[in-house]
Each structure stands twice: as structure tokens, then as C-alpha cells.
Amino acid sequence: MKRVLTGLQPTGVITLGNYIGAIRQMKVYQNEYDSFLFVADLHSITIPQEPDELRENIKSLIAIYIACGIDPDKNTIYIQSENPYIPAVSWLLECNTYYGELSRMTQFKDKSLKHTNFTSGLLTYPVLMAADIIGVDTDYVPVGIDQKQHVELARDIAERFNKKYGDTFVMPEPLIAKEGTKIMDLQNPTVKMSKSAENKKGVICVLEDLNLVRKKIMSATTDSDMLIKFDPENKPGISNLINIYISLTGETVEEVEKKFDGANYGTFKKEVADVVVNELSGIQERYKTIVGSDYIEDILNKGRDRTTELFKQKYEVMKQKIGLGR
Ligand code: AMP
Ligand code: TRP
């Protein structure tokens, strides 16, 4: 069975964008592939984190995954730092990666400009990501467009290692969400809805108060021509609301345009708000019963054990090929 794998960093809140763009994709793949979903906590410390907050965010993200419909029976769910072989594999890959490749990564260039005194972890971050991916012979990696370059680097590293030492890794492929699943900021619909946005009025969080969610949708930026039509270029606000609506209801753009033909924006926004609030209220209910429960402990132990075994095997093969150890 083909393998699919992705991870999210436990940094702050999880947005409606993360849910629609990343977590819900995994809900589909879990029925077709051997699925791995993890919390990339080692990646998150490439930027300074407050320990207690980090611990809370890790626990919360696991509960969010499950509350969002990630089925623990169909997925291997784990915390990256609980598997000591991931950094071990990463080191062996680092010694097969060029400094030049890493310093050319767009995300590194952006982040290193934002922080004046950054660590070497920020530079080697994509190699750790490559280890996550190729260490378990992943076939498919669903990520946002911003991570595509990192998956391509993982392919380059895998190919190089395979050439040098003989077939060792499966070549992974990025799965980029369709245009339709990029959720934009409600206040500024030309930029992506992001947890780091300054104006929180444009961002919906999965665990947010539902009255506030409703208010944010009702006051989303739209245009003045009173036409419910999908046209991201000229009508980014309405198109974003249509996108959210179709992502959650499974209806098509044409169906929505027809259904709301002649309706005013207030009516449409109220419908969108109902759909979002309904979806989030289910998630929030489940979240409350899951967070901090023993149920999660068992799932994480299983995930840790399975992936540790897989990474250990890969590490031993790599060591042997490279000529390390006894
Ligand atoms: P980030 O929160 O940027 O670390 O992203 C975690 C995952 O969620 C990545 O796979 C992103 O592509 C996805 N994601 C983040 N924001 C959005 C958004 N506004 N719309 C769709 N997908 C998103
Ligand atoms: N770097 C990814 C992000 O910031 C998270 C991540 C870490 C990841 N390892 C991964 C995603 C492996 C996919 C596969 O969103």
C-alpha cells in the first residue's frame, strides 16, 4: 500500500485554512493509503518557543487532529521528537546535502532575514523534513505550496543517496492542494489566512468562540456589486466565502452560484457562517472529550513504536551502506 505523510508544527492556533487545506486532505487520503500524520515539534524549535506553551500546543494539536476526523485506526499518529531515529537519519542526510542547496531555500531566505541572530537549525530544517519523509519511504506528501520546495529537496537528497550508495529510498511526490482549497484572510482576501496575521478579525481558528466566528464571517470584506459569483481576481472576498462554503458542503461552484442567485450578501454570509459554525461546533465538542484523555496516550504510544521501528531499520541500512559503526 502506498504511503502518505504530512506534519504540522505545533505553533499557536490551528486555523480554518489549516483545517480545510491540510487536515481535511488527510481525511480523504486515510481511506486510500497507509497514512502518517505527526506533530513536527522538532521543526518548531528552529524559532524560539516557550516550553510550557510548546507542551500545551503539542497536546492540543494531537487532539485537534482526532477531533477533526483523523481516524486513529487508519493513521499512524505521532510526535516527531519521541522518535530518536529521525534526527539520526537527518544527520546522515545532512552529510549528503550541500550548504548551497540549503541557503537557497526560499523559506530560509525569508526567515533568516526576519531574525537577526538565527540558529543553524533554521538552515538545516529542510533536511529534517526530508528525514521525516524518506525515512519511512513516503510516496505522497500533501503540503501547501510554500512547502513544495522542501519536498523537492527531499527528492534530490533521496536521489543523490540512491546513486551514491544504491537503492535506499522511495522517491516522494508532493501533493499540492488545488487552488480551491487555499483559504484567504477574511479582512484582506488577497492574502492567505494565516495564524501569524496581525489583524485577527480576518482569521478563524478551529477552537475559537463560535459567536466570534459568526461575527468574523458576517463582517468579511466583500465588494459592492451584489453578485454571488466565483471570480477570485475581481471578487476575492466573495470568492473566498464561496470556497469555504464549497469546501465544507461538497457542493460545486455552479450549484452555489445558482442557489444564491439574486440573494444579498448578508443572506449568503449568514449561510456560510451557519456551515462553518456547524462544522466547528462538532470539532469543538469532540476536542473537549479527547484533550488530555488516556485514549490519546495509547494512540501516541502506538504511533511512536511503529515509526521508531521503521526509522531504526532505515537508519541501520544507511549506516551500513555508509560504512559507519562496527
Ligand atoms: P502552516 O500553518 O503555514 O505551517 O501550514 C500548515 C499546513 O496547513 C500546510 O500544509 C499549509 O499548506 C496548510 N495551510 C495553511 N494555511 C492555509 C490556508 N489559508 N489555506 C489552505 N491551506 C493552508
Ligand atoms: N515544514 C512543515 C510546515 O512547516 C511541517 C513538516 C515537517 C512537514 N516535516 C514534514 C510537512 C514532512 C510534510 C512532511 O508546514
Verbal overview:
The chain is globular and about 75 Å long. With 326 residues, the chain is mainly alpha-helical. It contains 13 helices and 5 strands. The strands form 2 sheets. A 3-stranded parallel beta sheet has the order 1-2-3. A two-stranded parallel sheet has the order 4-5. Helix 1 links the parallel strand 1 (3-8) and strand 2. It has 2 domains: 3-180 and 293-322, 3-Layer(aba) Sandwich (Rossmann fold); 200-287, Orthogonal Bundle (Tyrosyl-Transfer RNA Synthetase). Bound molecules: adenosine monophosphate and tryptophan. Tryptophan (TRP) is lined by residues 5-9, 40, 43, 129, 132-133, 141, 143, 147. The site of tryptophan has 13 residues, from strand 1, helix 7 and strand 4.
Topology:
Elements: E1 3-8, H1 16-29, E2 34-39, H2 41-44, H3 51-67, E3 75-79, H4 85-94, H5 99-103, H6 106-114, H7 120-134, E4 140-143, H8 148-165, E5 173-176, H9 210-218, H10 236-249, H11 253-259, H12 265-290, H13 294-322
Helix pairs in contact: 3-12, 4-7, 4-13, 7-8, 9-12, 10-12
Bound molecules: adenosine monophosphate (AMP) and tryptophan.
Please give a quick description of this structure.
The protein is mostly helical and 326 residues long. The chain is 54% helix and 8% strand. Helix 1 links the parallel strand 1 and strand 2.
